[in-house]
Amino acid sequence: MKKFGRILTILLAAAVFVGTFAYLFQRSRPQEVRYEELTPEMGTISKSTVVTGKIQPRDEVNVKAQISGIVAELYKEAGQTVEKNEVIAKLKVIPEMSQLSSAQSRVRLSEVNLKQAQTNYDREKKLFDQQLVSAEAFDQVAQALRQAKEEYNASVESLEIIRDGVSSSNKSGSSTLVRSSVSGLILDIPVKVGNTVINSNTFNDGTTIATVADMNDLIFDGNIDETEVGRVHIGLPVRITVGALQDVAIDAALEYISPKATESGGTNLFEIKATVKVPEGITIRSGYSANAEIELQREENVMTVPESAIQFEGEKTFVYVLGDNGYERRDVVTGLSDGVNIEIKEGLSLGEKVRGNQILDEKKK
């Protein structure tokens, strides 16, 4: 039995040795190198660039208060539509004490003057009726009375405006009512009931009550690199994709190219704007991030091959064309490339076979 076991062990070792030798021999044999065979085709080549930016309304209007005060009521909220001159909020006036005191003093003084003017008129009227004074003298007294009444009414209105923000004779035009200056969608109302607001003045822009914009008039706003800005022009079609809207492409047209660059990270960028044509049934929100694809160049009905077939040597470009004796090198003149296919201007004919990438043997992967 021991002898049989030794023989079996020797046979197994020999089998392993022979199998290993055969495997290594097979692996060491040179494999035939095979390549993809590519055929030139007629087609269209276009080169595009992608510009990142955002979609926003052409104009956003900040509706501000005409007077300082406290927000008493809000009649609208963000997301609602508003018409021009429609009331958005109502303010409660907090008068400045010095102005209020001055207005009250003016009312008292004008009231005294009015009473005196009325007394003079009544006395002069009796004398005029008795033909004891001339018509000219009576007219002067009547004129003084009319002026005193106007001054009194003006002082009362001034007091009402300072105290209440509105006069009794012009309630419809009250400055306490904040009205929208345009029709559109309310994007934001940054104040709440009870907030203090101030009107615009030399030292302050004033408090924004609401931001309103026409969401049917949108633009794409982005920046293009200086290496590509020379190949774009006004009116060029733009294809916009929005990250928040899956599988939706929006047409646009380039309408503005900045004449001045801005530097960002050592790169000169030029601002561009494109008019956005929003499709029916699509809701666009202000500030959506978007990519704009702009076609820089296009060649139609030209001969193309996959760019992987092109070889480079210095400034020369060449391909390997299948002939009677295998693949032969041939110089070609190339044109526009879209990163996948490239235009062949000279050196190839339709129907010829061009060498592509090497086909790797699965056993060697």
Structure keywords:
single chain, 365 residues, alpha+beta, conserved putative lor/sdh protein from methanococcus maripaludis s2 fold, Elongation Factor Tu (Ef-tu), domain 3, 4 domains, 6-stranded antiparallel beta barrel, 22 strands, 26% helix, 41% strand
Strand order of the largest sheet: 2-11-15-13-12-16
The CATH H-level superfamily of the largest domain is RNA polymerase II/Efflux pump adaptor protein, barrel-sandwich hybrid domain
Largest sheet: 6 strands, antiparallel, barrel
Shape: elongated
Order of helices and strands: HEEEEEEHHEEEEEHEEEEEEEEEEE
Number of helices: 4
CATH topology (fold) name of the largest domain: OB fold (Dihydrolipoamide Acetyltransferase, E2P)
Share of helical residues: 25-40%
Mean pLDDT: 83
Kindly provide the radius of gyration, computed on alpha-carbon positions and rounded to a whole number of angstroms: 43 Å
Count of discrete structural domains: 4
Low-pLDDT sequence parts: none
Number of strands: 22
CATH architecture of the largest domain: Beta Barrel
Strand content: 35-45%
What is the end-to-end distance?
46 Å
Structural commentary:
There is one protein chain. This protein has 365 residues and is of the alpha+beta class. The chain has 4 domains: 1-30; 35-45 and 300-364, conserved putative lor/sdh protein from methanococcus maripaludis s2 fold; 50-57 and 215-299, Elongation Factor Tu (Ef-tu), domain 3 (Beta Barrel); 62-213, OB fold (Dihydrolipoamide Acetyltransferase, E2P), CATH 2.40.50. The chain has helices spanning 2-28, 97-129, 135-164, 226-229; strands at residues 34-38, 41-57, 60-64, 69-74, 81-82, 87-93, 177-179, 184-188, 196-197, 208-213, 218-225, 237-242, 249-257, 262-264, 267-277, 288-306, 311-313, 316-323, 326-331, 333-337, 341-346, 354-359. The chain has a 6-stranded antiparallel barrel with strand order 2-11-15-13-12-16. The chain has a 4-stranded antiparallel beta sheet with strand order 3-10-8-5, with no helix packed on it. Strand 18 and strand 19 (326-331) form a beta hairpin. The radius of gyration is 43 Å and the shape is elongated. The mean pLDDT is 83.
